[in-house]
Structures are given as structure tokens and as C-alpha cells.
């Protein structure tokens, strides 16, 4: 239980958006897939608010 609070305070309980974006880009299968994924990230795939429609 102490480790949970410690990770929440340190900010390591949830992955950062930059880490999620990097992992998404690293999972690309080809150069074309990477370019498509880069455009999606640039357009805010991971940075959209849940309130945007």
C-alpha cells in the first residue's frame, strides 16, 4: 500500500503521454506505417481531451 502512494507522489503510477506516443511509434511495422502514425500523433491522437467531440 505504501508503494502505491509512493508511486502516486513520484508520478510513476501512470505513463506519461510522451512515453505512450513513443511506444505507439515504435510498434510500427513499416516506414509507411511509421509515417501514418507520426501524422496521427502530430494531430493529437494521445493529447485529445476526453471532453472533445
Q: From the alpha carbons, calculate the radius of gyration and give it in angstroms.
A: 15 Å
The mean pLDDT is 83
Low-confidence stretches: none
Oligomer: single chain
Alpha-beta content class: mainly alpha
The shape is: elongated
Structure annotation, total helices: 3
User: Biggest β-sheet: count, sense, barrel?
Assistant: none
Give the helices and strands as they follow along the chain.
Answer: HHH
Question: Ends: how far apart?
Answer: 37 Å
**Roughly what fraction of the amino acids lie in strands?**
under 5%
The count of DSSP E runs of length 2 or more, i.e. the number of strands, is 0
For this entry, give a set of tags:
single chain; 53 residues; mainly alpha; 58% helix
Describe this protein's structure:
The chain is mostly helical and 53 residues long. The protein has three helices and no strands. The protein starts with a helix and ends in an 11-residue tail after the last helix. The model has no long low-confidence stretch (mean pLDDT 83).
Amino acid at each position: 500500500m505504501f508503494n502505491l502512494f509512493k508511486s502516486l507522489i513520484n508520478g510513476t503510477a501512470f505513463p506519461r503521454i510522451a512515453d505512450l506516443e513513443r511506444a505507439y511509434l515504435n510498434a510500427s511495422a513499416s516506414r509507411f506505417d511509421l509515417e501514418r502514425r507520426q501524422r496521427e500523433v502530430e494531430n493529437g491522437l494521445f493529447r485529445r481531451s476526453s471532453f472533445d467531440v
